[in-house]
Amino acid sequence: MRKKLLIITTSFFMATSSFAQDTTDISKMLEDELKANDINKTYYTTATFKTTRLIDGHSVENTAPGVLDVKISHRFGTIGGSNGGAYNFFGLDNATMRLGFDYGITHTLMIGIGRSTSNKTFDAFFKLKILRQSTGKRKMPITLSYVPTIGVISFRDTSLYKFFSSRVNFTHQLIIGRKFTEGLSLQIMPTLVHRNYPVDRGPNDVYAFGIGGRQKLSKRTSFNAEYYYQIPSTKVPGTVNVLSLGFDIETGGHVFQLHITNSSSMTESNFITGNKGSWQKGDILFGFNISRVFNVVKKHTKEW
């Protein structure tokens, strides 16, 4: 009886040991497989910024394929300064605005058109992602976008603009951005603005360097900052560099951007090279952008 009990006990422990070994081997195999999948798959960084505009200028974000983004941008008059104060209701009596339509063609290409009251300017652009921040099989530390813009002034002043070509300006911009953490994203924006006929008698080509970023405050809000510095050798005389500060608030399909800035314009050729408002003199404006997206084409679930 004792021999039988000993044999049964020994067999039980051997079977348990063998089963445990098999379980350990299976777990290790699964772990190795997951690691291999992580290495063989590319994971692209998402939500570097909440929308395609940082404040006045572009961010590295694109509108998704098949999605139409309707943007309404508004800048009131100066809160203080010579044109502000209580008489002009701290800027609310005066306002400029831009209505824009952005559409995503692919994950890396979007197009947009707009019209602003500043010089009655029509603008059109496309944004192409050349590189995208990613980890895994394809490691890329930054996102790189190229944004060329054309602006056409439709202001009725034949004494200034005798030819159509005099009304046209171009902007070429690279946007280099990185999402450092879940909350912190930064980008730099080297920019060239070409003006066919500068009425201010400044240079035709203006080089500028922008820097901007955002810090998330909560799941749906963030603090944003943006600054454009004109290179002194090509700076337009009498103009002031643009500094803007604001907050993004996401509510479902809308993104509300509330900010203060020293520029009333919302197209690159105007707010980079034509701004004359100064923070030191109290030429501070309150403004907002509203972004509303609509799914025009059904989304595809295929990986890209």
Structural key phrases:
single chain; 14 strands; 2 domains; 304 residues; Porin; two-stranded antiparallel ribbon; twelve-stranded antiparallel barrel; mainly beta
Strand order of the largest sheet: 2-3-4-5-7-8-9-10-11-12-13-14
The coarse overall form would be globular
> In CATH, what is the class of the largest domain?
Mainly Beta
Radius of gyration: 28 Å
Mean pLDDT: 86
- At the fold tier of CATH, the topology name of the largest domain is Porin
Topology as a string of helices (H) and strands (E):
HEEEEEEEEEEEEEHE
The number of strands is 14
User: What does the largest sheet look like?
Assistant: 12 strands, antiparallel, barrel
Q: What are the low-pLDDT stretches, counting only 5+ consecutive residues below 50?
A: 15-20
Tally of helical segments: 2
Strand percentage: 35-45%
Count of separate structural domains: 2
Helix content: 10-25%
CATH architecture of the largest domain: Beta Barrel
CATH superfamily of the largest domain: monomeric porin ompg
